[in-house]
Amino acid sequence: MFPLTIQATLPExxxxxxxxxxxxxxxxxxxxxxxxxxxxxxxxxxxxEGIRCTRFHTNCPVSSPSRAALLTGRFPDLVGVPGVIRTHxxxxxxxxxxxxxxxxxxxxxxxxxxxxxxxxxxxxxxxxTPNERGFDFFHGFLGDMMDDYYNxxxxxxxxxxxxxxxxxxxxxxxxxxxxxxxxYISERKREKEPxxxxxxxNAPHTPIQPPDEWLDKVKKRENDINEKRAKLVALxxxxxxxxxxxxxxxxxxxxxxxxxxxxxxxxGGQDNTGANNKPFRGAKQEMYEGGICVAGGFYWKGKxxxxxxxxxxxxxxxxxxxxxxxxxxxxxxxxxxSLLPLLEGNEQETDNRIVCWVRREGSSRYxxxxxxxxxxxxxxxxxxxxxxxxxxxNLDDDPAEQKPLNDPxxxxxxxxxxxxxxxxxxxxxxxxxxxxDVR
Length: 439
Known about the structure:
The protein is an alpha/beta fold. The chain has helices at 41-48, 63-72, 103-107, 173-188, 212-221, 227-252, 289-292, 318-325, 340-343, 363-366, 411-427; strands at 15-21, 51-53, 56-57, 113-119, 137-141, 153-154, 157-158, 160-162, 165-166, 195-200, 259-265, 293-294, 296-299, 307-309, 313-314, 354-360, 370-376, 379-382, 391-394.
């Protein structure tokens, strides 16, 4: 028997829908209670009527590594993605390892149909394209960011694809990705096999470019809002509206009760866009909690009762959780842990492990070097650039990371420092450039 927090027995092969926002600040959902100027009723519904996780963490404060961790269950530098994968090789800091096993490959063991719609950001060319890495269907954008939400170009390159075919769709990217997701979900209604859909928006990543009517609505409602903040709020509310359309499609198709929906972001909000990462310090690119602690949770109508949980959770935990739920066994090493006990309503200890974060980056601030953080229970050792000394924080007592406990001789400092050192040693054996990049 499942505990009382489960309303019904779990289906053996549920549909899985992972919705990933891009650069969404921890406080930029109305359900978080940190922003009075934003209204996100559809995402709120998922998190308020499911399990809302107050300590959901990404595996990196930037995009590509977090996506690699989500899809592999590994620390991203252990699969060749310590930094952002970009168009120009001199500014690209990762290459997804060929031996890495991705979640869609695991789900095929249980006859799932697998799809990614939206932003990929783990490779621009063969062999690191979605269809070559386990997805049956891809309709979306290969690259890192769009220079324009309407023309969908990056450095004048068109990275929009339907599987391997170059396409030139018309419209706002958020609307396009949502329409394609709705089409896919409706098509799968006619099929017997369950589906895994990874819906990765590029909103609210820069450029902050909401449709005009959404910006006008925010300005009329919020009298004191400035232009920068109004644009970001409008872009997020626009995404929330389309997530509501996807929910309504699942409901109308009779698929909702057999679909686990997971919502989160790839990292925190970008500081200069007006994002709200409260109550934390820091933002995207930073190892402070504002860069890596994000909104997130699990929704399953009729199966999961509402709950707010403060368990420490990583994006890389989604891989073993989904595998466990769908009876998709794996034997290769992973770094995440299954959260199935949590979904079943049980108490689960999730912070009794040393976890590590890394980001490698160019520019004068980073110089091609990596910077790191490590954590055990409530203690966190971190630096924000490669040139900084490490700082130790007790997040239980100091969640805003204002009072460093800088005693290198302490047992907890040594535990985290040695754990991080061992992680760096392991990652040093993993190439993060393709052969073409190093010629």
